[in-house]
Amino acid sequence: MQLQTTDTIVALATAHGSSAIAVIRLSGPNAITVVESFFYNKALAPKKISHKHSHTAHFGIIIHQNVIIDEVVVTLFKGPNSYTGQNSVEVSCHGSIFIQQQLLQLFLSNGARMANPGEFTLRAFLNGKLDLSQAEAVADLIASNSALSHQVAMQHMRGGFSSKIKTLRTNLISFASLIELELDFSEEDVEFANRHDLKNLVTTITNVIQKLIASFEVGNVIKNGIPVAIVGKPNAGKSTLLNVLLDDDRAIVSEIPGTTRDTIEDEITIDGVLFRFIDTAGLRTTTDIVEQIGINKALEAIKKSAIVIYLFDSHEISSGDLKLEIELLREHIGTSQLVIVANKIDVENLQDLKTEFSSHPDIIYISAKEHKYIDALKQKLVNLFDTRTVDATDTIITNARHTNSLKKANTALLKVSEGLAANIVGDLLAIDIRYALNELGNITGDVTNEDLLDSIFTKFCIGK
Amino acid sequence: MQLQTTDTIVALATAHGSSAIAVIRLSGPNAITVVESFFYNKALAPKKISHKHSHTAHFGIIIHQNVIIDEVVVTLFKGPNSYTGQNSVEVSCHGSIFIQQQLLQLFLSNGARMANPGEFTLRAFLNGKLDLSQAEAVADLIASNSALSHQVAMQHMRGGFSSKIKTLRTNLISFASLIELELDFSEEDVEFANRHDLKNLVTTITNVIQKLIASFEVGNVIKNGIPVAIVGKPNAGKSTLLNVLLDDDRAIVSEIPGTTRDTIEDEITIDGVLFRFIDTAGLRTTTDIVEQIGINKALEAIKKSAIVIYLFDSHEISSGDLKLEIELLREHIGTSQLVIVANKIDVENLQDLKTEFSSHPDIIYISAKEHKYIDALKQKLVNLFDTRTVDATDTIITNARHTNSLKKANTALLKVSEGLAANIVGDLLAIDIRYALNELGNITGDVTNEDLLDSIFTKFCIGK
């Protein structure tokens, strides 16, 4: 972990691979001069750019030892008006992998060093351009793959969450100061901090904190997708259903090979909500569902899913059997939502089917093979999520670290409440208040340490 | 093929994938206004940029229907001082795939259309910023993966080749004009074009053209790598040798699955020269090499290689057997260079081996497993190439299309020479001169047509 910002770092900022253009980014005191020393104009005379204004772009040629490496556009961002807060340069070159390597090598050999993952953002944090939770949101923003995860990350990056935490913290700090002032006058038994006001404040703050903690359940789902297990017998049409869902969204599908050999997780965004479908091994027999669920993979998939789709072949199962299977399944799905889907319907006989399965009015009838009523299923999935009352304009926690700190702050503040009720002395209150302040400060980086920064920024990609 | 430049095109210009930043590029009359209409400042007020200077970068926020899509840096390049020669904008956004898609979608729905492959460069050509062979060199530059291919592409992009062709063409044009003037006065039997001078000029030009045509053999190798077939028995250590070579250059290795199942081609750059190794199926028996070479894969690999490495286990073969094998092999390698490599040597007994195989003084002795003397082999490969007297500062043709046009021009000019020797009339000379001029003009795009442009630019990546 490099907490100093006095050297100059360089990294490829765009995605790896051959492309029209690539951008190499430098930041640090020598960022401009490192590039300038190899920068030439069309007439092959040195082109000076140090004195140029910030936020200007300059066409020129990078030459090293009489070899032209590339024709590039160099854009200057002078500190403090840059992302990192210090002098930065972006070199936009032709997207040849060879050229990218040559340029990186050139800058590395002449005054810059390779940036660590997230080091540009770390410098932005160290220079006060972003607080810690905003910096973390930058990584979330880059990883965002649905409208909701994008919006939540954007809100965090723009400081929505930070300002909320900072407000809580500021209010608490003033009380903490007053209580600590009492300690200085402890002989005299004075009370600078109004206990009634403090009690109200702590209640207000814990309410906000608890709401934030609760939002993590939703936030986590937004960030990582809503896990949906599809269970059903092998011939129920699971694969067909999955393919139909994927075909409709092929552009934003990513295929993640599962940890177990037969499990593939596929992500699909429906109406801006990311669903992560977990395809399970089929359940083998008709009635003995419990035994079949015993198949570990299916059980695990059900365990980690928020929604379980039970898919059955509408020709192959009676209403009584279905009732039995659903009952047995319910014992295993815990708090997950169950969606029962009848597949392979004939549109002509749909009314007959509905009559047959009238004891399950919530069944969704589809024909995966013929792409019939798939939208109804999608809508159902989206609605299940909507019932959790997500509002992207609310502050939603998506970060386990933040949740952890909020929980610790909450525990400490509950102790303060108890202490106030028991009328304990100020110095004991002060300890818990300080602890809560510390945890809140951890979130925004007002209180921090190298290990914490290390664990946060190593998760970034290089170049950011 | 869109030869008009009056609409506005947009494309992702950086490599696909998640990254620190991505760049979306627009070009066309509305490039700036399309972006400006969604561009806001930090206070969320519209940020006007149309009136700003060219080559300036502007931080701001892209907002669509009250949703913040991203915080971006927008760089303006106003025509004619841009790559395409028309107004262009680069939007540098966070490298989230979701954000890239959202921004592209936004611009596509609001006045821009998706750029075709190479369309930015096509516009640069149509607007006279580059000639055709320079435009083609842009694609070669991006694809370049060795110091030599990079340098040749750079020289072409910077117009080294074009200016040579243009000079030839200009000289010919003045003669063509004089000869065509004669045709206007054909009744009067005048000669405006000095036949002696014309003959000299044609000789000079064909000499240059023939040198350029000859350079394609080397140019093709520079661009596509020098094909090296490694042949030998299965236990000769071929795979080990290949791995050793690859390990040393892991960073610039790319693995191309061959057309046949058992053939893998691996590219390695040694001393700036790209080698393309073709791993062949092993030769199965010791003495019956001809029969074994009959294995089609090995034969094909040998046929398309410029260098054949014959690798043998120094413990498994006698000097007499080796002589026999080499003789038989030579019958099949045509003009390819043969490199004989003895593997699995003991460094202690190296002198004994050299004595044993003294009838083959050019053998290179290595131990692939122990990484011994691999550099000697590499040096040998590089030297074999160097003997072809490549000078990257010479103009080297790497493009089959250019070679084809040069050959046609050469044929036409040889007819002119013959015509001059036979003292034929000017109008027949004029036809061949015009034909040669046309072919030379094809190279630089002075003479062109839609089909030609189509075939050239569809090979580009989108965004360039």
The total tally of domains of chain A equals 3
Quote the CATH topology of the largest domain in chain A. Answer: Rossmann fold
Chains forming the largest contact: A-B, 55 and 55 residues
Strand order of the largest sheet of chain A: 3-4-5-6-2-1-7
Proportion in β-strands of chain A: 15-25%
Helix share, percent of chain A: 40-55%
Description:
Two copies of one chain form a homodimer. By secondary structure, chain A is α/β, with parallel strands linked by helices. Chain A has three domains: 123 residues, 2-Layer Sandwich (Gyrase A, domain 2); 137 residues, Four Helix Bundle (Hemerythrin (Met), subunit A); 143 residues, Rossmann fold, CATH 3.40.50. Chain A contains 16 helices and 14 strands. Chain A has a seven-stranded mixed sheet. A seven-stranded mixed sheet of chain A has the order 9-10-11-8-12-13-14, with helices on both faces. In chain A, β10 and β11 form a beta hairpin. In chain A, α14 packs antiparallel against α15. The longest helix of chain A has 30 residues. Chain A is flat.
Characterize this entry briefly.
2 copies of one chain form a homodimer. By secondary structure, chain A is α/β, with parallel strands linked by helices.
Keywords:
3 domains, alpha/beta, 464 residues, Gyrase A, domain 2, Four Helix Bundle (Hemerythrin (Met), subunit A), Rossmann fold, homodimer, 16 helices, seven-stranded mixed β-sheet
